[in-house]
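Dear colleague,

Following up on Tuesday's group meeting, I ran the structure prediction for the two-component complex that the binding team flagged. I've pasted the input sequences exactly as they went in, so you can double-check that nothing got truncated or mislabelled along the way. The structure tokens for the whole assembly follow below. Feel free to forward this to whoever is handling the docking comparison.

Inputs:
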Amino acid sequence: MSDFKCPECDYVFSEEKGDEYEGYPPGTKFESLPDDFVCPDCSVRYKEDFVPA
Amino acid sequence: MKGYTGTLPNGEAIHYVDRKRWLWSLSVIYPLQPFLGIWLHAETGNEAWLLLPLFIGYVIAPFLDWLLGEDENNPPEEVVIQLDRDRYYRFLTYAVVPLHFVALIGAAWWAGTQDLSWWAFIGLAIVAGITSGLGINTGHELGHKKSKLERNLAKIVLAVPVYGHFWIEHSRGHHRDVSTPEDPASARMGENIYKFALREVPGAFNRAWAIEKDRLERRGRSAWNSDNQILQSMALSLALQLGLVIAFGWLMIPFLVLHNIFAWWQLTSANYVEHYGLLRLKEPSGKYERCQPWHSWNSNHIYSNLVLFHLERHSDHHAHPLRRYQSLRNFDDLPTLPSGYFGSYLLAYVPWIWYRVMDKRLLALPHIKGELDKVNVDPDKRQTLYERYGQAAA
């Protein structure tokens, strides 16, 4: 279980916690997020821009 | 006056004072402008005073932008964290939320209780509408933030112009798709503002609905659910507008229809000038390049920035959407509008003047240098524009 961070706005996607509001349950692998996933807070960074937190 | 201290990378201490600190309260009192007209009407009996805010918005504002000129100052990066944390600035954005309700209810009360001539009635509805359009600007500043309080206030203030879908549409849709042909909120070269409005208004709603529906479906819910953020804001709009009809009678129906249309028109005007013709190119992966500073038009005109929470420093806003208004920066060599937003809107309303002024500016931008392939062109005008500017249609 790892965390991934948006390099623009510091939003963190935690695989352990998921993101309930966005509809990603706890245990969701970052890898399994859709390819067109963009940062839910700033929308200006793509999935591939996220860095391990 | 309150200042902030920091240390430059070379070790030198700096002290920064925000000279615009108190002037930002202009963004708060600006929505009270309908009351200026109402007060003068009450004092003199002359209904023409009710139209004063239109004169302020479309004559005085462009004039003040011209007279007071531009402000290119930036807060030093070293103090931005302190500046962002200073709660004074965000309190201003909270304070303006109830004032938008007060402004609409006040204008509706006057329109519903005074025996106005038809033209004064229409004028007051338009004044109320452009004032509520500023509420979309307030909702914009609030809706970009992470805190629950600010996001909820955004939904609440957006109920006044009946634009509850905006914070989803804007933060999740427009910022993702900005300056691409897919974005209904980015104007194309050769597309006039009236044609743009008919693409933007339904396009923005549909995109917001699709984004919210996707989110709710991931949570195993239907879109028609009380957790739908759009419906929450729209329910508040319905209660407010229904309440006004019950309180002031059937005349509120045409009043509110005009009000809503002109509130949306304010946003359409801003969207139209903010990204006209600008285009993000596609990367080999098939995705669009990240939004760069040259994908937004800007203005540093001081007056209109002070009443719009710095919205006109638009490139920095798109580069860093969560950055608070007091910290937005100017950069050299950005695409620049010929005046502040209010003057630019006037140009946009007369398409042939807009094209004359803007098409030249657009093609002269250093990242475009006359290459129409690097411009977001209206497909219906493609042939004409390529012929006019000497390039074979691609």
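The CA atoms of residues 18 and 24 of chain A lie 5 Å apart.

Cheers,
M.
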